[in-house]
## 1
Amino acid sequence: MEDSKEPTFRSYNQKQGAIYSQNRPTYHPNLYKTIIDYHVSTGGKLNTILDVGCGPGNAVRDLSSHFTQAIGLDPSEGMIKAARSLGGTSSDGSHIQFETSTAEELGAGTSLNLADSSVDLIVAATAAHWFDMSLFWPRAAKLLNPGGSVALWAARGGYIHPSTPNHAAIQDYITQIQDKFLRAHAKQGTGIVFDLYTDLVLPWSLEESQDEFDKGAFFHKVWNKETVCSNGDEFFASQQEPQFMSFDLDKLEKMLGTKGTVTRWREANACKTGTEEDIVKVMRGHIEGLLYEVGVPKGQEELNMGVEGVLMIVKKHS
């Protein structure tokens, strides 16, 4: 999922990659439809898709039915092993190809032997904030067919939606935990996601501007910024409502375990990991208490968590 600036997921083994795949929210078909519709309507073809920072392959697996060839790249050997074990096929029934490679190399030096102007759509699902964009954009410009697209999206989430009982107290507690225990384990790219890719470097912002890309065709959409609902669209597949996802506390605990800051906290506090002093266990116990104090019955503990997302699509000139 991330390059050398974010070593956590790069060091994942196959088992960790499979757990990650199972417990991360998947993206909604509406998000994929937005990408495909814009790509095709602006001259993009549906032959080859390349997912960069693919992790265990969730996004490329969802999109592969639109393309005759699908490829996933990730710098983590463990993630790629997990992706291969989970498999997937493209529209003509051929297997998705998964290879170990960074976003800056985009398959160079692998068995893929990707030729210039051979890829129609490059995607990165909550991963581009770890890329060295000064290297990524020139390589992407070479690989893309004329009229091809680069779709980059990310999710910022975790705020407690007001529909959750005692939501203000729960949000205050989570903020305290983040500030006191988890912020120290954040990496630079986390801030780029927090700002919904406002500071993500685009090809025309480079010192050597990549003129192959069409600034005038730039597509930008934000979902539910600052909790304001965006036209009823969903960003994640598990959303029951446009503005939030619902989690029981078992599911929340598993999802939090896939977060980079939690993983790094556990690495730094190995003696507490998996015990009652584990940061996620502590959070769960306190959240349960905050729900019970306002009358939520045992067995019905559930959080509605707000969803904010961003999508950017960059076009190569036809």
## 2
Amino acid sequence: MRLRLLLLFLFPVVLAGCNPDPNPGPRIDLVGSTAPPFISSNRQSSLPADTFTTRVFAEARDNVNGPALTRLRITVDYTPTRNPYTYPVATAFDPNLVPKENQPLVFLDSVLAPGQRAIAFQYRAVTRSTTGRERWTFQVEDVEGRSSQRGYQLTLRNTDSAQVFHRYPMRLQAPRARTSRSFAMLSSGIVLPAFAVGSSPSQTANRDSIDLVYQPITGGQAGLAAPADPTVTLTGWLRKRATEFRRTSLNATDFGNTDTVPELQAAFDAGTAFTPSTRTGSLSKAQVVAFRTTTGKTGLLLVEDFATAPVPAILMQVRVTK
């Protein structure tokens, strides 16, 4: 993906920790602001799958004659793991037994247009839904191979961690075009924009973990589809998950009362498969959809609302087996 230069207009911001002057590499800064709210430093929260916004600004040391910028890369390290963990009941908890992430998630890996000496990049993302930490790292490189980086850490203390199933809210943003669709991993609750599942080899693992895609439907309606659904065109994807969706007769109260693994599995088994089973068709408010992923995770989606601002989106609650 190529990023175009954006001009930063004057507004009340604080640039987070400028690089020391002796560093000959490019500068990179995170823009902090309360209005509008931009994250630029460490935060702790108790809200799972919370939405946040960050703006990154990078420039060459000499933005007239200095070496041009070549690459912007954003990665996320989840500690100990991005997926929910089933805590022991009969034995003591041993943190060393919690699975660890082997590689960071590559959120953005962008080769910049030739000759750029300054860039501004703003994005909206979703925090983790499981207890733990996520370290966001922002790195810029120039044509001479020099680089600089900034970062912050987001920490979540989820009071639901001991539940036998995982639950979280999901905001799936509507696309402005086919190339800007939203993608979600149902086990972890992580939602990714289209550029996070791009053609970069470093983002192949992201593609392989996607369970559902926002699917616009003619007439302004919205639905969900698996990556393997024939109506979802994902060029270059070697592996596409075939999440199965089923229609249910459950309402919001039934959804709230489904709070055990056997009940989640029974709700799926009692559902009626959509035709084809890899997409839901038009969704409606208060609809409850059952699903099963290719990795064997079973759960329910409750459509709470269809937001119109600041960006159109499907607002859902999700319950899924760990």
## 3
Amino acid sequence: MTVIQEMLSSLPIADKVGAWGTLGTVRAQKNFDPDTDVEKLGESLPNTGSRQTIIDVLTNLNNEQRQDVMRLYKEQTQQDLIENIKKALSGDLENVIVGLLKTPIAYDVQELKSAMKGLGTDEATLTEIICTRSNERLKEIQNIYREQFKSELETNIISDTSEPYSGLLLAITKCKREKDSGIIDYLRIEQDSQILSELGPKKTPIVSKWITIIAERSPRHLRRVFDKYKEINFVDIEEDIKKHFKGDFEKALLVIVSITKNTPLYFADRLHSAMKGTGTNEKTLARILISRSEIDLLSIRVEFRKKYGKSLYSTIKSEVKGDFQSCLLALCRAEDI
């Protein structure tokens, strides 16, 4: 890791944006005119042939501007824009447009609830959202979740997942992850790597200690712990996770290691998985493009091209069709040569 990469990785996302310019593909529209946008939407919604206008308007605004459009639309029409979108559109296009109109917190809440709805639980989505959001974001998610569904996120996690996976998710939702202090604590790095290397009476790792370290240490500290772990055990920590753990707990630990080492690469892998094989996971595809469009989608595009030898833009173009394709490509923004 270069000095510049080390400095950048230690900054929270907001600071990265301030220092380097947005790493997202969607930015605030400079000549934002909400009245014009509301007028265009008002004309397009009754006309099913004007879906592209809806896509163009909403994908060229950032989320804050979309919220302004929603409020102005309500003032001028006394109607809810999301409800009218649901009446005018359907299927995957409806889902992605509604996702764009929700605030990032409300969208996370919707996706978490959906992941635990019905007979099956979508553990991959639970892991993706809970393990990639900041302490502050997780606190807000839990508050909105409680207000909207009159139940606790933690309670629903317990009822829909099993130990030790549920224990890891609950530990993360406690929001005890430390912030990067900028100080390298070599003694603590050594101690944590030794603890992760310990085996209990049955020659298995001590799960509770793994959960504490993985859920509470800062990303920068964990990266150094993972390096030290390899130095001690002569193997990447991912290999020992696969050796000693199984099921959703194993998958979640691997996700956290991946996110800690390279967050854009993790999302590039998620997008690739959503589009490989015979079927496309449209929901995962839309969620990642929406949720990362103002954060690091440019970086995700770079990692996707680097690893898979094909651009994210062209892969989306070949895997999905119609208005849904147009909307996702608008969020992706451009081809990477």
## 4
Amino acid sequence: MRRSGDGDLTFYGIEKHHSLSFQASAPTVLTITISLPATQTAAHTNTISSNTITTTTTAAETATATPAKAITVLPLGDSITFGLGTADRNSYRQFLQQRLKDDAIGIDYIGSVRSGTLTDNENEGHSGAVIDQIRAFGERTIAASAQKPEVVTLLAGTNDVARKLDLANAPARVLSLVDRIHALLPHATVLVGSIPPLPFIDRQNVGVGHFNDVLQNLVQARIAANGNGTANKVGWVSMEEIGVEDLADGVHPNAGGYVKMGRAWASAMEDAIGKGLVIV
């Protein structure tokens, strides 16, 4: 797992690769829109275009073991969390779920919104929502849900930057939301993602870059203050690998962008699990 910084849950790279074993058999070709779990017996190749993720299978698949325990995850954010930018509306949630499944770790998504072709497609992604609205949606879902999330994947600020809504205080509003989540869920781990570029609105990446830099500093200061403890658990998840070429419409990631985003979230979750901040 690659990190660009020291300490707890700071930078997470996009570098993990899974190898698959295969057995010869009469070839059959099946094109599906998910990656095969590493526990399946098959030879396959993945290709990512701006609109689709295609896996071509040339061997018989075997059953995948069901994870013993599922981590309850609340995907919280705006239209990127919802999944705009691709026809399937699966966002990063599909790849994150599959990557953890490859590790024999289940994910149980919760939220008041359903979007995507995933069987488990619950989330709390609201198109056009700014930070304060995302806070209200999160508070409502946490209070109403019988299942309490163990992990919150938080991606907020895109619409604030796009609308130039009190930009000087926007990163602090995200950190305040993190504190509010911990007030409601003292033992939850909150993973805070940086926002992708907005080339049509912020052509020089000044607004997005400044927002991400300030928010990163705030989150890392909170991590340092926590001293790797089990209270107020928070992590910084860099989405810096997502470039303009990974956007479908200048705002929302395309299929390849969502894969990169899913890998970043997955690396952060794997790191949190390794540190004992998330129990499986």
